[in-house]
Amino acid sequence: MRKRPDPFLVADSLGLDFLNSIATPVDEPVEWLGSGEDLLAWLAYAKLVPVEVLEGFRGSAMPGELDAVAAQARALREWFRKFVLDNKGKPLRSSALQQLGPLNRILERDDEYTQLVKRERTDPFGTSGLVLRSVRRWRSPDTLLLPIATALSELVANEDFAYVKACEGPVCTLLFLDKTHSRARRWCSMSTCGNRAKQAAHRQRVRESDR
Fold it and tell me: Where is 147: in which H helix or E strand?
């Protein structure tokens, strides 16, 4: 069995990276959220949930509970993918709010607050030794959906959907946010689909020159 690669975090948007948690980068679809354990691993890799929280749920969840949350995450992913594909390439209008009820219903379950904590020594900003940090109460495994929903809502609220693009690789299904200065990004990554396109163009030029 082919070893599954690390998740692709190439979208310049965690919300789109979540959509890319199932992808066809080469020839076969790869699923990174196939089970509860997969979901924990993806959240850890994306640094969306503290490792100690993930370990706590790994040890305390009832049998099948994390798998059920992973199924909810997959359903959320595919629902939001349709929203993105329907709206990408153009500015998002306020009327899109009518389509986003499911996302708002997840967000309203959040139990987050701010708290004063010590400023890290590696944090050079500010003159106070204290800083405000957001803290979330992780009451049950389904709260693992909350940071995902936050990432999706930040994409919707803070980014221009005119620059949400699909990789131009012939079989690649990855989405990304084009933050390049020229807004001319075409590939999920130059090291994968970009190089394949260059190689294909080179082979085509060779074939034409041999005629």
Answer: helix 145-158
